[in-house]
Amino acid sequence: MTILFLSILFSYLGGIFLPLCFPNREFIQNTMAHGLASVACLLGLVLGYEGLTDPEPWHIALSSNIPLLELSLRLDRLAAFFLVMISLVGLATSVYALGYVTEYYGKVSMGTLGSLYNGFLLSMTLVVLADNAFFFLILWELMSVTSYFLVVTEHEKNEVRYAGLFYLVMTHIGTAFIILTFLVLFQNAESFSFEAFRQSGHTVPERLGTVVFLAALIGFGTKAGIVPLHVWLPYAHPTAPSHVSALMSGVMVKTAIYGLIRVYFDFLDGEFPWWWGVVVLVVGTVSALLGVMYALMQHDLKKLLAYSSVENIGIILMGIGAGMIFSAYGFPELAALGIIAGLYHTLNHAVFKSLLFLGAGSLLYATHTRNMEEYGGLLKRMPWTGLFFLIGAVAISALPPTNGFVSEWLIFQNLFLAYQIPDILLDILLPIAAAMLALSGGLALACFAKAFGISFLALPRGSHAKHAQETPIPMRIGLGGLAVMCLVLGMGPIFVIPVLDQVSAEFVGVSVAERILTMDGWALTTANFASVSMPALAIMLLALSGVGLLFAHLLGGKLQSRSYKTWGCGLNVTSRMEYTATGFAQPIKRMFSTVYQPTIKLESEMLEESRYFAKRKHFDSYITPFFQQYLYEPVVNIFLRMSDRLRNMTVAHELNLYLGYVFAALLVVLLLVR
Amino acid sequence: MPVFQELIHDVQGQAINVCSMFLLLSSFAIVAQRSLASCVSLYAMQSFFLGFTAMVVANASGVHHLYFAAALNFLIKAWLIPRILHRAVDRLNVKREVEPLVNIPSSLLICGGLMILALYFSQPIKQIGPLLTNDSLALGLAIVFIGCFIMISRRKLVTQIVGFLTVENGLFLLATAITYGMPLIVELGVFFDILVAALIFGVLLHRIQDTVESARPAESRFEEVGEVAP
């Protein structure tokens, strides 16, 4: 395994350094960077597989000259699971990038882009393997910084620089809280190694434990994008090149989930007061609902996907939060079920979100715009991309027979099983969370019906969309692979769940696979409560649609085809008659106007001769960015005012004032040392 | 004759204290004085007392290189530097501290406060061990503080320079009070520095006086950082 790991390391390192050795040979740089990344990801899949199957965790350590820092790596089941996820998505994006980055030839240095891309993948891979808090933080920062540079790839645009700065600030706030988490654990363990954290986790006093809990939630939550710390996602994720967006949204935010599970279940040993779980559950529910609500209002496809990541992180946290509640009440089996559901959704989201982001990248590649209002009619022009995007949209809307359905179904089951908890508050709270999950599922369906329908159906609304062409083959391979994974993960929970069970058994200590799976019928059962068999469901769906067609054929009479102008009334059909993305979202905007607080402005400029004839009308409609306006702006303003005042104090206009400061400082120091 | 020895010892200690007191008094006088020329003269007097203190300390402690330092003190600080500064003041148009930042009575009160602070700070050091000149420790510290205060509260460059030189005198007194002077080579260096500084001040005063009255830093150092619109 060490050899395998070293070959992964060297592949990535090759990917980092070799492209820089061939300046201005863009084809070679592209092939080297993304080819080597693909190789490394393939090897990563193998290593992850071995990690998942080996009974003993693989461990390697290198001491360093820096005190408290040990370069140690450990591949346990949890790390292996995340390694598999990173490598799987990384493989697809790397293949995709082979075609996609040709768009950037001549605009961006291919060597830098490729080398940063490899650095980003490498740092993510090592983050989940790190076994020392210091080392983890270094890699975590490396991951943040490389992704920052990737976000500002097109740095000549003003909005890209703004997004990058926003991301950098937010991620560093998050890192500060992660450092706090580790420092408190270090106080207790007196060592920075994860092994020591693990040994002494259960001796953390409760108050400090609460500090660890909150700091980790805020720190990792900033990276994951929980509400209200999600504000950077819709800026940073869309501005990066699409294959990087896919990695950031699909994989990088998941490293935060990894961190949370590592801290809560591995270090703190799953022993915590019940309200921790409730906090995580509530945060997850709020993120899920608000994430999808804001997603619905976006007309920039990549922004929509970024908000939808907020939703899915919320769903994952709902699973984990439910698991934490059950763990606190001493139901290890149910806790394991919650974690399995959360991890399953983590994997699923990684697959379909990167699929959708890559799909959005393909549309961007073909039409050079991210605005959905300018798409339309792309299914005929890009059939393969359309098909794969549709599969992704179905999966993210949690419809059978795709993977999104399975994990959300597990989370629902887990929430319904709350009746076993002897606490009336939680008996009510968990089903309410389930209801909110159902609501967000419905809204997600509307959101992706919009995303797919407005982009791919009807007539093109822009000239770019009219002349769009199918993307190069590597891009379609990347998309196709992920689409197939969506279906495989959807049909085969019977293969996936035992693996996840092993992962969660590592720290919950209970294996529940036997009780979830009934081996004969390919079915899932939770605690004799409900069961579902995905393949059967798929066959039923196919059959039912066949039956539907048959009925339509039998009862609906003969299909007659007439050559006639549709809805003609004397006019030709034009794209201006279509349903627009704004129109699609309008009813929901009305329904939830308390959340959105929409502002509509209509300004008319009248002719001077007569006030009955308008010369020009200007219509503006936008929703209030609630958290930015009411949470972030006041804080930022306070800081700006403070720093203004401080600057006025320090940038004195008189020499005497400077001297006065020095003298006052001298007196204070003398007073202190006396 | 042990009694005689003790008497001499006592007399020497008293002499040092008296000289130090005069040093302090001249510092107060500088604070109270508006005329630039008088400030410089007062500085010369202060330096003279300082040299005298150094001589007494040298006699009492038997550290002979202090005689040399005292001689240099008389030569450079009590004669040469005041001469340079007097010449510079003669060329100036404005010969008075017109508008000090803190008016004279308040300045004197503040300096009294600083004096008390200095006594307070020197208490723990005095307790460490008996020194021949242990009262001059507090006095030296007070002179340093007062010099700083002159630099802060006065607008004219000449008074600020005098303040700076007062700080230096206070430090010299501190050095003699605590350690019977620094090694000769260091003191030579300090004297040389002070001399060069005074020369430079003299030249600068000549140049600056036409344009600006006090050394003002540029109005604002930092350019406004433009905010990036989303």
Short description:
Chain A has 674 residues and is mostly helical. Chain A has 26 helices and seven strands. Chain A has helices spanning 2-17, 26-53, 77-100, 110-129, 133-151, 158-189, 194-200, 206-224, 233-239, 242-267, 274-296, 301-328, 332-367, 378-381, 383-396, 403-416, 424-456, 463-466, 473-491, 493-508, 513-516, 534-555, 581-591, 593-596, 626-650, 655-673; strands at 58-63, 70-75, 517-518, 523-526, 530-533, 598-606, 614-623.
List keywords for this structure.
heterodimer; A: 674 residues; mainly alpha; three-stranded antiparallel beta sheet; two-stranded antiparallel sheet; 26 helices; 7 strands; 70% helix; globular; B: 230 residues; 78% helix; 0% strand; disordered C terminus
Order of helices and strands of chain B: HHHHHHH
Q: Into which percent range does the helicity of residues of chain B fall?
A: over 70%
Radius of gyration of chain B: 20 Å
Q: Give the count of helical stretches of chain A.
A: 26
The low-pLDDT segments of chain B are 213-230
DSSP strand content of chain A: 5-15%
Characterize the overall form of chain B: globular
Label the overall shape of chain A: globular
Mean pLDDT of chain B: 80
Largest beta sheet of chain B, briefly? none
- Domains of chain B, number: 1
**SS-derived structural category of chain A:** mainly alpha
